[in-house]
Amino acid sequence: MDAGSSLTRVRAGVVALLVGLVVACGSAPAAPLTSSARTTGSPASELDKLRARGTLVVAIRVEAPPANRTMGDPAHAQKRAFEIAVANLVATAVLGPNARVELRSLGGDRLAGLDQGADIAMTVETPTAKDRALISSPYAASAVVLAARDGGPVGRVDDVANRSVVVAMDELGARDLAQSFFQQRGISVTLDTAQGVNGAVTALEADRAVALVGDGIGVNVLLTERKLVIVSAVASRPYVIATRKNAPDVAAAVDAALKAALASGAIRVEAAKAGFPYQAP
After folding, report:
1. Pairwise CA distance, residues 250 & 57, whole Å
2. Domain presence at residue 69
3. Of 62, 79, 189, 245, which residue is most buried, by most CB within 10 angstroms?
4. Strand-strand pairing, 143-149 and 211-215
5. Nearest to residue 258, comparing CAs of 275, 270, 240, 246?
6. 129 and 244 both lie in a single domain
């Protein structure tokens, strides 16, 4: 065998060895991903956390009016019973049949309860509410109204011109609404104040004013008993549920629950049980 043939065979062997190494490397299993490369699960959403907890924390106004009810809100009990019933409907729809509801009593500013740990706040829609929270679709209509004695001197808005109107001071900010309402219509009135709708009606009956501005639900409760008539709506204030801005998934679930309860008639049924003068939104 000559030297050239030997060299050729050596070269062929080297090439075969290299090809084998390449094939072996290509067929080897890929190295496992390091922990930093593995896909991690998404963090729990606010709705996930709420469902895991199983308790819906609700900011609501539950303070009782004075025992003699000559002052304050004549519809307080009806409003709170209705709102609590709606909160329970929502809790069951969102969390399931074993849902628990925890009520947190607040004053007029129930949206503040969201900053203090409440999941939802039972409130009414105002022009500034959406700046502070996510607001549901309305589930009951309501308004601040202008009311007068049935058969009295006021049958139209213009009839209060240059006369005294008493404003029921409450959480709805009725005085500011009344001022804006009359100014927009160019009607000059003298505004007095009373504690709640009951106090305003008492002032009306004592001839200290010819009309009152106050919460329409409270006025509706007293319409027959105190012989009142609603002259005009002053500002719409429908009943809504507020949720924190960082919980859009909770807000969506609450809104879906309310729409389902409205469609089924469950909200109207609860309003009737509570003695709440219900009007659909």
Report:
1. 12
2. yes
3. 79
4. antiparallel
5. 240
6. yes
Task: Give the CA dihedral 51, 56, 57, 61, nearest 10 degrees.
Answer: 160
β-sheet bridge partners, residue 57: 102
Q: DSSP strand E in the chain: where?
A: 55-60, 100-105, 120-124, 134-135, 143-149, 164-169, 190-195, 211-215, 228-236, 239-243
Q: Are residues 130 and 148 in the same domain?
A: no
Q: Which pTM was predicted? A: 0.80
pLDDT at 66: 54
| Span 38-88, pLDDT tens digits | 344 678 899 999 999 999 999 998 766 555 544 578 888 999 999 999 999
* Nearest one of 156, 123, 160 to 140, comparing CA atoms: 123
Full domain range(s) for residue 176 = 143-236
Question: pLDDT tens, 220-276?
Answer: 999 999 999 999 999 999 999 999 999 999 999 999 999 999 999 999 999 999 999
CA dihedral 262, 263, 268, 271 (to 10 degrees): -30
Let me know if residue 37 belongs to a domain: no
Distance of alpha carbon 240 from the chain centroid: 5
User: Does residue 41 sit within a domain?
Assistant: no
Tokens at 187, concatenated: 């009607």
User: Which residues lie closer than 8 Å to 48 by C-beta, 6 or more apart?
Assistant: none
* Overall domain count for the chain: 2
